[in-house]
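Troubleshooting entry. Yesterday's outputs looked truncated, so today I'm pasting the complete records for two proteins to confirm everything comes through intact. If either block looks cut off, that's the bug. Protein one:
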Amino acid sequence: MAKIQMTTPLVEMDGDEMTRIIWQMIKDELICPHVDLKTEYYDLGLEHRNATDDQVTVDSAEATKRLGVAVKCATITPNAARMDEYDLKQMWKSPNGTIRALLDGTVFRTPITVAGIEPCVRSWVKPITIARHAYGDVYKNTELRVPGPGTVELVYTAADGTETRELVHEFDGPGIAQGMHNLDASIESFARSCFEYALDVKQDIWFATKDTISKKYDHRFKDIFQEIYDAEYAARFEEAGIEYFYTLIDDAVARV
């Protein structure tokens, strides 16, 4: 039987430890006998990331932009113990975080339903897809170890030099602080990805934040989603017979 021919290569991101062995077995036994596999290969094993000062991770993301499809194996995000084990130059950041930031990517985690394999919760008859924004937030945070009493503030300096300041906390002893950011443009891209995915697979969207507590950060997500839905997707969702609604994250969990 003739092999399936590929016209465009995909990006192949190899991983760490047992993943490398399993991925090679998958290719040898399940893919290559049937498909004329064409890939652009990148070794994201921790040793090679260290040798290239993590440039290989950036290169793999740029290749994904160019070719459109990538397969990535599991990789190690090093901690202090891995620093010694692999004799690393520095504690390299999460490859997933680097790649997603460069792609301005949205992560969809969706179950693969297989006939004959039944869910543990029998009342779950439709798959639930989790969509996660993959830019900014904790992946691009700035952290500070507060050594003792003092003040931590958020400071925004505008192009004209004017400052806006918000108190984070008055510390009366040691502690920690963390700053996060996001971009309207990236949130808008996330929203459109979610709406387009929902239309493609005919799934309702439940969008949830904690805007009752995070009245500026989370609330910005809520507003942008609603604005884009009303302007670009309301009629398409109605025609497709699917629904979009906003709720608190507590309620979304309860509904699941």
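Protein two, checking that the full record survives here as well:
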Amino acid sequence: MKNKLLASIVSAGLMMSAASTMAAGDAANGEKLAAACAACHGADGNSPSPIFPKIAGLGEKYLTDQLKQIRDGSRAIPEMAGQLDGKSDQDLADMAAFFSSKTTQLAGAKEGELKLNSGEVVSTLSYGEKVYRSGNLETKVPACTGCHSPTGQGNAPAGFPRLSGQYAEYIEKQLFAFRTGERATDGEARIMRSVAEHMSDAEIKAVAAYIAGLN
């Protein structure tokens, strides 16, 4: 079962890579268009608060896709309501190019302890690293490295975002949203929903904490 899930992830990545060519973004123009984004995401895409995600360095293809989904309403984010109205596909590509050209600042990982479903108490970061790098064969959770790389840099051409340095609170929130189906922006392949549906609360919290300091 694990091999089948991994195979589907790889296949999805190849299909995304082979998708129709996206218009190249103009970072210089994107900087002008993204001026209003600074209030929440920071002037360079490094949000000062975990309430809002860091979007610096996430990858141009991924960001363009997410911006389109937010603009078109398929990804509903109340705080983004109306922010992208009137923006063309090229405008969004330009904005994505600008933020993707910036360097992500690490949020920093915080150590702690978690109680697993078995009752065992483990180190949050050690357990998070184990799940991120090896997955969990028993619960059918694949390693995160397959799509997001061992260092969390992602796979920009395939549209898999950088995770390294993202706020733990944001990663945790998104994994829970994928698990419940509240977030369905992973396309017909359902890559993230297929992964998150098998993750326990402890696995989600541990992975999110580990990613915040991954580099």
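Both blocks look complete. Sanity check on protein two: The first strand starts at residue 113 and ends at 115.
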